[in-house]
């Protein structure tokens, strides 16, 4: 009896804590556990409705339909007068329904929430039709982090999700985009980022240009970290030129076909770290692009090259091109897959050719599974 009374006293003591303390406690739980606290007592019944950070993650083999119903119930049951700071919706397994249901509901809820700072909506979809995103998402004055991606599991992303011609996100610092389509101007160019004055980190993966335009201009005076790439080896829809107007860029990761238009030699004066993975077969017509980039990277300190990229560079050098002098290079990493049938000794011989005009640098050979 004494133990039971002590337990009641302890429970009451916890329930007597201020709302902000209890909310801090349930914020550390996953969303299902947070909602389940409503059964503890009347004191806890409506606390979850005041959460300012919502995180919904679905992964295989969870039931997708039940997950989506749960998301809808939480969004409809939450206290709409409480500001929502962050909303994170990620569906790792394939969504087996039209996205104009739960996905659109999540996006609309985010668009109607004032002062939201972080938004993630990332989903794989079995069959995607054109998904119209709420325009206000791209004109938010409060968002500091935005991650959007909608891609189809099978086949090409035939129903392309389009974003506006110009993103007006004055507080945004980090932007991740995957499998989205950039709206182009009459001149066939897309230039969506120039008005994002606080943007520091930009990631663009497997994105398209409207009506198969040919030029994506990344023009931003503050971006310091840039990742541009494609996971689709044979998809020509991603084969467009990327023009960089990013004078403060310090880190660049590039994968896919080498379709960058290198700026002038002084166009990237602060570039220090690069990671290049050009997985396409070698094409002689792209020699000039690769050579111009080798010259541009002459001042980098840390360089990571995937082995196939290194082989392509070797092909160019064997045709008479001179390797640049990497005057500031301190570290070169060569990444290989675990099943690449080539010895470290041969890799080092190739590296020696690449660095023959450069001061000594640390060379690491990394085999990844």
How much strand?
A: 25-35%
User: Which descriptor suits the 3D outline?
Assistant: elongated
Structural class by helix and strand composition: alpha/beta
Poorly predicted tracts of residues: none
Q: What is the average per-residue confidence, as pLDDT, rounded to a whole number?
A: 83
* Integer-rounded radius of gyration: 25 Å
Can you list the strand order of the major beta sheet? Answer: 1-2-3-4-6-9-12-14-16-17-18-19
Largest sheet: 12 strands, parallel
Protein name: F-box/RNI/FBD-like domain protein
Pfam family, one: F-box
Organism: Medicago truncatula
Domain F-box: 11-59
Topology (elements, then pairings):
Elements lengths: L1 H14 L3 H9 L3 H6 L16 E6 L5 H14 L8 E10 L6 H11 L5 E8 L19 E8 L8 E3 L10 E5 L1 E3 L6 E2 L10 E5 L2 E2 L5 E5 L5 E5 L11 E5 L5 E5 L4 E2 L11 E5 L9 H10 L5 E5 H12 L12 E7 L6 H11 L7 E7 L1
Parallel strand pairs: 1-2, 2-3, 3-4, 4-6, 5-7, 6-9, 7-10, 8-11, 9-12, 11-13, 12-14, 13-15, 14-16, 16-17, 17-18, 18-19
Helix pairs in contact: 4-5, 7-8
């Amino acid at each position: 009896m004494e133990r039971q009374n002590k337990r009641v006293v302890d429970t009451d003591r916890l329930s007597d804590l201020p709302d902000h303390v209890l909310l801090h406690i349930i914020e550390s739980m996953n969303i299902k556990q947070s909602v389940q606290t409503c059964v503890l007592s009347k004191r806890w019944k409506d606390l979850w409705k005041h959460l300012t950070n919502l995180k919904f993650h679905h992964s295989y083999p969870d039931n997708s339909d039940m997950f989506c119903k749960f998301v809808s119930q939480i969004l409809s049951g939450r206290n709409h007068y409480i500001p929502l700071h962050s909303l994170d919706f990620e569906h790792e397994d394939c969504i087996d329904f039209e996205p104009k249901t739960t996905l659109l509901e999540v996006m609309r809820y985010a668009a109607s929430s004032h002062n939201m700072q972080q938004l993630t909506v990332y989903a794989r979809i079995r069959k995607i039709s054109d998904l119209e995103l709420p325009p206000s998402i791209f004109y938010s004055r409060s968002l500091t982090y935005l991650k959007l991606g909608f891609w189809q599991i099978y086949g090409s992303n035939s129903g392309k999700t389009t974003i506006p011609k110009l993103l007006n996100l004055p507080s945004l610092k980090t932007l991740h985009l995957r499998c989205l389509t950039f709206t182009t101007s009459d001149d066939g160019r897309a230039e969506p980022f120039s008005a994002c004055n606080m943007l520091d980190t930009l990631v663009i993966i497997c994105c398209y240009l409207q009506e198969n335009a040919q030029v994506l201009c990344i023009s931003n005076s503050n971006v310091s970290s840039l990742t541009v790439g494609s996971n689709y080896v044979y998809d020509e829809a991603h084969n467009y030129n990327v023009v960089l107007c990013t004078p403060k860029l310090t880190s660049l990761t590039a994968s896919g076909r080498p379709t960058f238009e290198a700026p002038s030699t002084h166009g990237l004066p602060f570039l220090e770290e690069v990671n290049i993975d050009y997985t396409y077969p070698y094409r002689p017509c792209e020699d000039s692009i690769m050579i111009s980039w080798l010259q541009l990277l002459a001042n980098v300190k840390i360089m990571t090259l995937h082995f196939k990229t290194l082989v392509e560079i070797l092909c160019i050098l064997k045709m008479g091109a001179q390797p640049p002098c990497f005057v500031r290079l301190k570290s070169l990493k060569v990444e290989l897959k675990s099943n690449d049938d080539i010895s470290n000794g041969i890799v080092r011989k190739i590296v020696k050719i690449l660095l023959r005009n450069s001061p000594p640098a640390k060379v690491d050979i990394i085999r990844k599974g």
